[in-house]
Design brief:
With 255 residues, the chain is mainly α. The protein has two domains: 97 residues, RNA polymerase sigma factor, region 2, helix turn helix motif (Rna Polymerase Sigma Factor, Chain: A); 117 residues, Winged helix-like DNA-binding domain superfamily/Winged helix DNA-binding domain (Arc Repressor Mutant, subunit A), CATH 1.10.10.10. It has twelve helices and no strands. Helix 1 packs across helix 2, helix 2 packs antiparallel against helix 3 and helix 3 packs across helix 4. The longest helix is centred in the middle third of the chain and has 22 residues. The two termini are 32 Å apart.
């Protein structure tokens, strides 16, 4: 288990990796049996990744916190229905992903505010007189992810940022693995174009796609030079600060 991030307000777990002694599925079994602490331990074990998935899709800290809270309430209540057809972590990722996507669908149906931008970064094109550092900060992967069509953004966040196996992501999204792979390719090409790695009109630049990511079969296969390394190399706390702990009713058995 990686060392705890000192910037995270999440309580530190015991030293060393305790998953061999306390597997996820055992914690879930204990929770179903009525143990008041088991789900909280399970949640904290996966909290950083679950937060990062929600924030990667929603691009807003408050929305991400709300999605994780909704997802963990759902997971806590549905734990008895877990059939063991996937890893517990994959099951939790699917619930968080679905909660985030549902929020995005509601936002699209009832838009109220413009999409969030990183504090200090202008919405308008960057002034050529800006320094390279300022340009890099304002046009990094965190920002341009929000410009991808939803289907492509979801695939890139889960595969390239979270490093989930392709087969797991296919199960999460209920689509063939080949569809996930081509959405990732198309998403990477969009990122490369937005980050300036591919000039407009380049044969590798992506064509226009719909919000659902149609025409996936024509996706380019070339990976842009550093889109993955710049996004996946960070901890979730660099993408966004962790929100305070979820309410007690989310992680305990008390109703």
């Amino acid at each position: 288990m990686a060392a705890a991030d000192p910037s995270s307000p999440l309580p530190a777990g015991p030293p060393g990796d305790d998953r061999a002694a306390d597997p996820d599925v055992e914690l879930l079994r204990r929770h179903v049996a009525g143990n008041p602490d088991a789900f909280g331990k399970l949640f904290r074990r996966h909290a950083d990744q679950l937060w990062s998935v929600a924030h990667g899709l929603l691009r807003d800290g408050d929305d991400a916190a709300g999605a994780v809270q909704e997802a963990m309430l759902s997971a806590r209540r549905a734990a008895a229905s877990f059939r063991g057809e996937s890893e517990v972590g994959t099951w939790l990722h699917r619930i968080v992903t679905n909660a985030a996507l549902e929020r995005l669908r509601r936002q699209a149906a009832h838009p109220t505010v413009p999409p969030p931008t990183r504090a200090g970064c202008p919405r308008n094109p960057i002034d050529p007189r800006d320094t390279i550092t300022e340009r890099d900060i304002c046009l990094d992967v965190d920002d341009v992810l929000g410009r991808l069509p939803l289907a492509l953004r979801t695939a890139v966040v889960l595969v390239d940022v979270q490093r989930l196996p392709l087969a797991d992501v296919a199960r999460l999204l209920d689509v063939p693995a080949g569809t996930v792979k081509s959405r990732c390719s198309r998403g990477r090409a969009h990122l490369a174009l937005l980050l300036g790695h591919l000039p407009p009109g380049n044969p590798g630049a992506p064509p226009t796609v719909s919000e659902e990511g149609h025409h996936d079969a024509a996706a380019p296969t070339q990976r842009p030079p550093d889109a993955r390394s710049r996004s996946a190399g960070r901890s979730p706390h660099h993408a966004a600060p962790w929100r305070p702990d979820l309410p007690e009713e989310v992680i305990s058995n008390g109703d």
